[in-house]
Here is the input.
Amino acid sequence: MEVEFTARQVKIPKALRELAKEGMERIGRLLGRAITVESETDRLRPAASEVERLLAGTALAQSLWNWKPRYSLDQGLEETIAWIREHIGRFRTESYTT
Here is the structure.
């Protein structure tokens, strides 16, 4: 099977910070608590980085292959939260790691 890929430049209507804030607020609602986001200057992407922001979407897959997601974003987040709670021992929760 041969697949053709096309690169496209897409203008993003919202700033990355707004998208991140909306995502964290959504996760906070699902967890039933407010989430505070902290950042460290030395962990931010350098100003000369070739990638300013990354954003994925499903519109192209939907239009090319009539693809539809099986889960809503909230359903996926709810299942992920439940799995993490069930397997919390697998995570190093005492420190921040990437």
